Structure formats: C-alpha cells, structure tokens
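Session log. Operator J.P. requested a structure for one protein chain; no other inputs attached. Running the standard single-chain path with token output.
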Amino acid sequence: MTAPEATPPAGLQPAPPRVLCVAGSPRRHGNSERLLDAFIRGVNNAGGLAEKLVVVDYGLTPCRGCNRCSRDGVCIVQDRMHEVYSLIDSADAIVVSSPVYFATVPAALKILYDRCQPYWARTHVLKQPRGPKRPGGMLVVGGGGDPFGNGCAIATTKSVLAVLGVQYELQLEVEGPDAPRDIEDRAEALLEAESLGVELVSLAQHFRSSGV
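Structure written below.
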C-alpha cells in the first residue's frame, strides 16, 4: 500500500502532480498522439509534471496467461514492462490516448493492458490493500465508419484503469481524423484536450489532499 504523502514543511510547496500520459498508437506523431501532446501542454501549464509513455517504443511482450503473478503479484516476463510498472506506480494521475482499431485499442496498447494482470492479482487473489485513488481518463480518436464505434476501446480502458486504482474522470472523443495530420484541422479538439490537461492536474491535487 502506498504510504500517505508527508505534509511539506511550512513555506515549501508540495511536489507537482505526476501525470502519466500514455500514447497508445503504433503510429508515431499521428492524430491521437498529437491530441495527447495538446493535453500535455495543459498539464505543464497547470504546474503538473507530464511523463509521456509511448507504448510502441517499449517492445512489450504479450501476457502469457501463466497466472504466476497470482502467487506473489509479480510478472515473470523480463522486458521493459518493469519500467512501465514504475511509471504507473509513481503517477498521481493517468490518461491514455488511443486511436480505435476494429472498435477497440491497438495491439501494442492492449498488450500493456494485459500485462497489468499483476495489479489485479494483488487485490483480487492476494487480497493486498490498494493505494489511494487517482484520477484519470481517456482521449480517443476514431476515424469513423465503424458501426460499433468507440465504446469497446473506452470500456477496455476503463477496465484496466479501475484495476490500477484510477477513477475515470475525463474523456474526449474525436471522430473523423484518419490521415496522420488530420487532427491539426480540429483546433477545438486540441484546445479541449489542453483544457482537460489543466483539469486533470487540479483533480490530482484534490485527490492527493483529500485522500480520496
């Protein structure tokens, strides 16, 4: 269980909220990542510390379904997911940005989601206490035309965030952008993403101070 954060001495400011910003697309600098970059500007402008995690750069291995994590809450697969675990654990808030592929998230992002099974094992099998709640949400870009829409991608993301102890607070859906730079013509969406970055910092500060 995460220890309560110590109250800073008089005259000192608390550390800025660390916001983990997950770029879930396999295509670098595409629409969902550009939307995330706008969100990050909002986080930084609000005094938060944005940490950008580009999933495709980590070359993660899929979950084996071996259930070894149910023994001790630790994944036995040796790859860079252990770096991701550290980023997740140190975050005060988490947001995921993703395109929609066949009504859900891309394979690289789904691998990261599946590799969060140790968190589920700790709370549901090993009955370990979970740390304080953290706020989070999702930015989703759908090219449009899929009769099943974005709902599966959103539900999948909500599921894994819940396992991580993240309370789903923010969501932005943008329909239409498909070619790599289409989002640049959606100034209102970029401004809204930036505004949500500011809002998530405020929420993180509230959650931290109130011990939600």
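Operator note: The chain has one domain: 18-210.
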